[in-house]
Amino acid sequence: MMSVRNRLNKRPFLGFTLLELVIVACVVSILAVVLLNRMQFYQRAAEKAAMEQTTGAIRSALNLQVAALVAKDRTDFLPELLKENPMDWLAQKPANYAGEYFGDKAEGNVVSGQWYFDLKDRNLVYLMHNRNGFFGKNAAPTPIRFRTQLMHAAENFPGEGGQVAGKPVEGVVLEQIDPHVWN
Questions:
Q1: CA 76 to each of CA 13, 32, 54, 56, 126: distance values in angstroms, whole numbers, following the listed order
Q2: What is the DSSP-derived secondary structure letter of residue 102?
């Protein structure tokens, strides 16, 4: 007859060994690192897409402003658009628009992931939230700055006395001031 002790020795072991537990912990850790890396990638991509969508909306609103002035034969007022806040052209400002600030007054009032208009330089500024993988020309994360710029005709027109009077204004564009690279 089999004793209780013999029956326990013949039963298979029902738990994990220490080696199996370490292997499972390593696999779970590797999967967590890969998941976090992908999550950061998608957060950066989403922020980039949101920023580009806002600049696209501003460019469309600017084109409407220029078209309205051209239709009214008021192209002499195109340079006045350079003084305006581009966010004012939108029917509805983005939820992450912090407002207008003069120069360095935005520090402490504007957090990352927000837009603001710099009244001193007349620039529209976006402060990056997910700065990993985003670098300006000096390899340090910087705010992204945009400005409105006059677009001139491709050729010069002669003025009085046969001299070149300059290039006539054809429109206004929103351009990024410093080139940036998204990784």
A1: 88, 59, 28, 25, 30
A2: -
Measured CA to CA in angstroms, residue 75 lies from 65, 68, 70, 140, 174 at distances of 11, 9, 5, 40, 17
**How many structural domains compose the chain?**
1
Q: Is 7 within a domain?
A: no
CB atoms < 10 A from the CB of 75, how many? 14
Domain coverage including residue 32: 18-182
Q: What is the pLDDT of residues 49-108, one digit of tens each?
A: 999 999 999 999 999 988 888 888 887 888 888 889 999 999 999 999 988 998 878 777
| 154 lies in some domain | yes
Q: 9 by DSSP, 3-state: which? A: helix
The tens digit of pLDDT for each residue in 20-66 reads 999 999 999 999 999 999 998 898 889 889 999 999 999 999 999 88
Tokens of 148: 């409105």
Residues with Cβ within 8 Å of 154's Cβ and at least 6 positions away in sequence, in order, are: 167
Give the whole-angstrom CA distance, residue 61 versus residue 53. Answer: 12
